[in-house]
Write a structure and sequence with these properties.
This protein is an all-alpha fold. The protein has helices at residues 2-25, 28-50, 55-63.
């Protein structure tokens, strides 16, 4: 779980760096899709790390 959060944090930092660079060099519109993709990826990782295990997995483990 910590690895997923670390990965999400890294992706968010990279996205922020991309935005800062785009703003600095005036190419924000060209880099906007890359920023959106990275933020969505980070959000997905964070959401996945916060969800409990699938209930089907728990049921299967209980039967073992």
């Amino acid at each position: 779980m910590a690895e997923a959060r670390d990965g999400a944090a890294r992706d968010l930092r990279e996205a922020a760096a991309t935005l800062r660079k785009a703003v600095a060099d005036g190419s924000a519109p060209a880099n906007l899709q890359e920023l959106i993709d990275r933020l969505e990826k980070a959000a997905g990782r964070t959401a996945a790390s916060e969800q409990p295990p699938d209930s089907g997995d728990r049921a299967a483990n209980a039967q073992d």
